[in-house]
């Protein structure tokens, strides 16, 4: 395989780090043990700077090349947090904490970026600076945003940022990515509809909130079919519909709808929000009712920039068995999106073979993917910041 030979030597050590992280999963921002070990190892590798406490419990490592004359600064990111899932893998290094599990492979991401850091600090065969970003709280806590808000990009002058995620179903040794929207934005809305409750036998004296809310649900589904360009992908789902009537002879006074919108570009995301507000408010108004819309913005669209995808693909082709530069987008979301809002960059999927899907209690990170991930990080840095510039 074309991976760096050094990672064959380092594989047992990196795998041992991974298994240790796996045995000790930590949630959200509470990644103190993991961050402590990351800090300790980065310091041990001889990084030029190691700074904990960025974005609450994130850790930043800085490695300068043999030259920094190019002025280039590239950031590589890994996430450190686990999930509130009870592990059912039966592995001898399974989670030692009931109800917590590295079921998304972030233990593997952290171990691979540490492996790359060790190599880069040993060899420094590049002209520029590598900034390593170890973030907390990818799983719903927007840890990437916390690090960006803490000024990580400006403080170290980051120009480009790259990240990877293991992908069950993609063979080990494969990398896939795409230009533009790769993973979806994930926003939530609540619509509180207020009419005028009353007796089921005297509907003319009420404003039937159930009927109004039903009209809103039907009209909301016109947004994807009639407002969004049909070649774009948007999902709008109304997941819950509750009213305050629990009797068959009572017309509800109040109804609550809850739903989610997923999009693959920021224009559609904005359009969907505008339309949800307008459709809900104006439909309610047409019936003499009111609708109060609460929009909760979740993770943005993960948007890869074309130039950086080209670099990511070139590096992947040098170290992987197969590279797909035009992978289809998917609708889960990813908080690396916040880093990509801040700087150009690329996010790639790294093959994890035929395992249970991420977030499943039987999910397993495949350690044979480690040399590919480490080699991709290193190849990217050396190609983007070559010594002979
Ligand atoms: Zn996850
Ligand atoms: Zn994940």
Written account of the structure:
By secondary structure, this protein is an alpha/beta fold. The protein has two domains: about 5-185 and about 300-385, Zn peptidases (Aminopeptidase, 3-Layer(aba) Sandwich), CATH 3.40.630.10; about 185-295, Alpha-Beta Plaits (2-Layer Sandwich). It has ten helices and 16 strands. It has helices at about 5-25, 30-45, 105-125, 145-150, 150-155, 210-225, 265-285, 305-320, 335-340, 370-385; strands at about 50-55, 60-65, 75-80, 130-135, 160-165, 175, 180-185, 185-195, 200, 235-245, 250, 255-265, 290-295, 300-305, 320-325, 345-350. Strands 1-2-4-3-5-16-6-15 form an eight-stranded mixed β-sheet, sandwiched between helices. A four-stranded antiparallel β-sheet has the order 10-12-8-13, with helices on one face. The chain is elongated and about 80 Å long. The model has no long low-confidence stretch (mean pLDDT about 95). One zinc ion binds near residues 104, 139, 358 and 359.
CATH topology of the largest domain: Aminopeptidase
Question: Any ligands, ions or cofactors bound here, and which?
Answer: zinc ion
Total helical segments: 10
| Main sheet specs | 8 strands, mixed
Q: What average pLDDT do the residues reach?
A: 97
Stretches where pLDDT falls below 50 for ≥5 residues?
none
């Amino acid at each position: 395989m074309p991976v760096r030979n050094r990672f064959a030597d380092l594989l047992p050590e990196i795998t041992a780090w991974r298994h240790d992280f796996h045995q000790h999963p930590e949630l959200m921002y509470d990644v103190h043990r993991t961050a402590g070990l990351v800090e300790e190892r980065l310091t041990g590798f001889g990084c030029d700077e190691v700074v904990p406490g960025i974005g609450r419990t994130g850790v930043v490592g800085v490695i300068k090349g043999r030259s920094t004359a190019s002025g280039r600064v590239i950031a590589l990111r890994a996430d450190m947090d686990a999930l509130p899932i009870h592990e059912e893998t039966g592995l001898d290094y399974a989670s030692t904490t009931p109800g917590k599990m590295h079921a998304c492979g972030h233990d593997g991401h952290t171990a691979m970026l540490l492996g790359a850091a060790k190599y880069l600090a040993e060899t420094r065969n590049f002209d520029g600076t590598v900034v390593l970003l170890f973030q907390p709280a990818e799983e719903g806590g927007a840890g990437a945003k916390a690090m960006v808000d803490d000024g990580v990009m400006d403080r170290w002058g980051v120009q480009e940022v790259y990240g990877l995620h293991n992908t069950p179903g993609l063979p080990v040794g494969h990398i896939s990515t795409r230009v533009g929207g790769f993973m979806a934005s994930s926003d939530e809305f609540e619509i509180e509809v207020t009419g005028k409750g009353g007796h089921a036998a005297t509907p003319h004296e009420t404003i039937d909130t159930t009927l109004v809310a039903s009209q809103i649900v039907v009209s909301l589904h016109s947004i994807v079919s009639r407002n969004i360009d049909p070649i774009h992908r948007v999902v709008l789902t109304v997941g819950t519909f509750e009213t305050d009537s629990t009797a068959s002879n009572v017309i509800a006074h109040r109804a609550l709808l809850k739903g989610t919108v997923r999009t693959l570009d920021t224009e559609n995301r904005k359009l969907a929000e505008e339309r949800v507000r307008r459709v809900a408010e104006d439909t309610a108004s047409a019936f003499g009712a009111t609708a109060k819309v609460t929009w909760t913005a979740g993770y943005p669209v993960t948007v890869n920039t074309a130039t950086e995808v080209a670099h990511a693909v070139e590096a992947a082709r040098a170290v992987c068995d197969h590279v797909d530069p035009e992978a289809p987008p998917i609708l889960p979301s990813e908080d690396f999106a916040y880093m990509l809002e801040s700087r150009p960059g690329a996010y790639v999927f790294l093959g994890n073979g035929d395992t249970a899907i991420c977030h499943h209690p039987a999910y397993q990170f495949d350690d044979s993917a480690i040399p590919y991930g480490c080699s991709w990080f290193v190849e990217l840095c050396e190609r983007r910041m070559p010594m002979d510039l």
